[in-house]
Every structure is written in structure tokens, then in C-alpha cells.
Amino acid sequence: MSNLNFKHLRYFWMVGKTGSIARAAEQLHLTPQSISGQLTEFASTLGVELFRRSGRNLELTDTGRRILSYAETIFNTGDELLDIVRDQSLKTALAFRVGCADSVSKLIACRLVEPALSLAEPLRLICREGRLASLLADLAVHRLDLIIADRPMPPHLSVKGYNHMLGESGLSVFATAALAATLTGTFPACLDRAPLLLPGEDFAIHHKLLQWLANQQLRPRIVGEFDDSAMMKAFGQSGAGAFFAPAVIARQVCEQYAVVELGTVPGLVEQVYAITTERRMSHPATLAISQRARRELFA
Length: 299
Prior knowledge:
The structure is a single chain. The protein is an alpha/beta fold and about 300 residues long. The chain has a six-stranded mixed sheet, with helices on both faces. A two-stranded antiparallel sheet has the order 1-2. Strands 7-8 form a two-stranded parallel sheet. Helix 1 packs across helix 3 (about 30-45) and helix 5 (about 105-115) crosses helix 11. It is about 40% helix and about 25% strand. Helix 5 links the parallel strand 3 (about 95-100) and strand 4 (about 125-130). The longest helix is centred in the first third of the chain and has 25 residues, at about 60-85.
């Protein structure tokens, strides 16, 4: 194989991000025909299929997704290099890369990571979001310094990482005031036959919530399951149904999403972990996150 053509890689990266040759052409100020020809040459050089057709859009193959992940790292690193050249004050700021699992509340993740930005040594925070398995793969090759997750790292994975429990919180149920006014009875009986939004199977709490509903003999109308906690809250804000969120951030959830708290689920807790490559936390940023969790958020 000849040397990697970075011009072709950038064209591929842009098409992969936008999902369309036409949209990539607009971003790159080129003709679609030019980009299409370059993509064909790039795929031929690599000897792999990069895309498959999905309606009018292009869908990445498994190999294409892996190559796109490397392209993201390459061009993001290039952008960081240009930033340092343009602003010499950035050269002392160390990158701190945090992965946040989709199943973790973004409000909790933000409050946990916030102290890292106030350290004496300046940090440049880089946040990634995704499923835990994908984030663990990045941790294994040192693309991440820390992962915030709602469960410990699965023991069967061959990833050198360590679990640090940051804390746990009870679960509360929220709904818009308009929806709450239509519910009858006290909590939790008011959830029977009520529209309900559930966290998806990727949440550690998913099956426990289903068991709790069954034990309470509640038969809500499940109108949606979500793999992303922020998306679930957004639908809850629209009035689509009641939803669950950690009780420790009840006030912020009510304020940000214009909802009311219906009650707290007895006996169920959601845990939050930091997963790092350190057996004992020593990085100043990870220590700051751990201290915020234990002294404030989950105290």
C-alpha cells in the first residue's frame, strides 16, 4: 500500500460526518463529482468498502466507521496544533479527555467535571460521548483519560482499567405540570396507565425499573425508550410522558426542563463510576472530580 493520502482522508472524513457527498461538497467548496472521484480512488487504494447506500444518503461500513474514528483523532489533533501556533498561551494547557456514557445524566457529568477547569494548572477539556463499550475501547488506547459511567467496567473485557465508585443517588420521577394535572392518585399509583418514558437497555437501571413497576402492579403506557438521558428529558419536557432522573439533581432538572417532581422511587439507586487506567487516582483532574462527587454531589 502506498502512503496515506491525507487529502483523500479529509474528503472521506467530511462525507462521513455529513452523511452526504453534496453536503460535504458545500463544506469543502468543491463539486460533488470531484469528491466522489476522490472517494473512489481512496477506497481503491485502501482496498476496502467505505460506504454503502442508504436511501439518498451514504452509510458507513464497519471498516469505514473505524477509519472515521482515526480521521477524527488526526484532524482534531491538527486543529489543536494550529490553535497552539496561533495562540502561544495554549501551549501550557494540557488536554484532559473525558468520555461520558450516554446513560449518565449530562447534568451530573457537568457538575462532576466542572472542578477540573478550576485547577491551578490550566487544562483543555475534551469531552466525548457514546456507549460504554466504545468509550472503553478509546480508554484502552489512551484516547481518554477518564470515563464517567453508570456501571463498573465489565470484568470480561481485556481492557486495563480500574473502577472508582463516585457515589449513588435515588431516582425521582418528573413530568410537566400539565401532564401531572391529568394523573390521578398519589405517587406511585398515579403512574398506572400514565404515559411513561423509560431509559433504554443500555442503562444499568433499566431492568430494575421494570421490576419495580411490576412489583407495584403498575401498568404505565410506555411511549418511548431512550439510550440517551438528555434525549429522554427533552421528550419529557415536551409533555410526551413522565421520566426518571437522579434525585440529587431534582432541582436542576425541574428548572432546566420546566417539569415538576412527582416522587422518588423507594429502594432504587443509580450509581456513578469513574473508570481510569489508574489503580489509584493521582491525576489532579481526576482527584478534583472524585472530591466533588464525595464532598458535594453525592454527600
